[in-house]
Amino acid sequence: MTSLQTDACAAESLASDNDAQTTGGRCSSETRATGKVVPLCAHRDDAASAADLTYSRIPSIAENQCVVRSNEWVNPEYKHLVLSAPDLALTVRAGQFFHLACPPSNDEVPYLRRPMSIYRVAPENQRIEFLYKVQGVGTRGLAQLNRGDTLDALGPLGKGFDLPATTGAAHVLLLARGVGLATMAPLAQEAIAAGARVTAVLSARSPSLVMSADYLRDAGADIVIVTDDDQTSDVVQVEHLIRRLHASRPVTFATTCGSNRLLSMLQRVAAELQIPGQIALEQHMGCAIGACYACVRPFRKSAGSDELTYRRVCLDGPVFDLQETTSW
Ligand SMILES: Cc1cc2nc3c(=O)[nH]c(=O)nc-3n(C[C@H](O)[C@H](O)[C@H](O)COP(=O)(O)OP(=O)(O)OC[C@H]3O[C@@H](n4cnc5c(N)ncnc54)[C@H](O)[C@@H]3O)c2cc1C
Ligand code: FES
Q: Which PROSITE patterns does this UniProt record tie to the protein (predicted)?
């Protein structure tokens, strides 16, 4: 796909994005979840001859009209949003995200959509879930959604995690701080389903802000909780912990999200122990479909290189190679 084609289709998509914003992305109804396909991705049909410039249009992104099933507080800062979603939304993979048309809250109207990682997907129940921190105008609007309301979720968007194929016993390490956990949780499900052992190190300010330990444990992950209150979450201690985990069962793939300090430490340790890995990044976004370049960040051209290149977090990520990512 050329960037021109991407941008032309992106513009088309943005037009419908704005339509959704003018309605606030919300209406009260008990209607079934539906999806309006956004013709964003035109994939080259490999079977076509080189002379044939026809592109087969495989819809992979839609403005999904989701219906709220529940939207409950899980602690004083975070809410858990459960939606009925149309089929296309259920194809979302770990690390991908939706661009949500958050409804207005009181007099505040969020002009742009807000990116939100998928927290859980249950295709058998037509369900997608998000875990979000209520912090600004967009998430305050989300927090006011009630059962039966509709929410316009553009997606699935971006490139998710890519678990490497291993011949031996796979051991996946998830290192998550705060809401970074929301992004990592579905990876645990995918890795366990693929036969890997998963260890999730969950870091938070206090034990009351540790989320989803039960969910991850039920999925089959081993859980280690570290908190600021218990003075177990500082980077030096977490580094020792990872080294111990690796010594007892070699880590074959390491992932992180949500903390710059943890990223720098994990890069160093993973490079030394030769563990491949990925990171899910969060970046302010405009369009989330590659058109506006609001989310560009510098990356190393390759692991260990001093040469930088610039990539769009929304389209080239939000999941990137651990060693190519620069800290912020
Ligand atoms: C790919 C992706 C996935 C995300 N997944 C989740 C998720 O699962 N759960 C969740 O709670 N949040 C997630 N976020 C962050 C979320 O999009 C922002 O917190 C959200 O936009 C806040 O909107 P707001 O209007 O409530 O707050 P705003 O008023 O826009 O911002 C509140 C505060 O958060 C900061 N902020 C806003 N957006 C970002 C951002 N993208 N990166 C860093 N700081 C930001 C602002 O600078 C400000 O200090 C994700 C972000 C990205 C890019
Ligand atoms: S947010 Fe527009 S290009 Fe990434």
A: FAD_FR (PS51384)
Continuous H helices in the chain: 3-22, 137-143, 180-193, 213-219, 235-248, 260-273, 313-316
Which one of 3.90.1210.10, 1.10.10.2910, 2.40.30.10, 1.20.120.450 gives the CATH number of domain 3-46+54-157? 2.40.30.10
Output the pLDDT for position 160.
Answer: 94
Class of the 171-321 domain? Answer: alpha beta
56 is in an annotated binding site: no
Q: Is 295 assigned to a binding site? A: yes
Q: Are residues 70 and 146 in contact, defined by beta-carbon separation less than 8 angstroms?
A: no
Residues paired with 308 in a beta bridge: 300
Residues 6+ apart with CB under 8 A from 100: 25, 113, 114, 115, 116, 130, 138, 142, 151, 152, 153, 154
Of all ligands present, the nearest one to the C-alpha of 79 is: 1
For the CA of 284, the closest atom of ligand 1 is 41
Predicted confidence (pLDDT) per residue in 297-307, tens digit:
999 998 888 89
How would residue 259 be classed by pLDDT, with cut points 50, 70 and 90? confident
Q: Residues with Cβ within 6 A of ligand 1?
A: 97, 110, 114-117, 130-133, 135-139, 179, 182-183, 282-285, 318
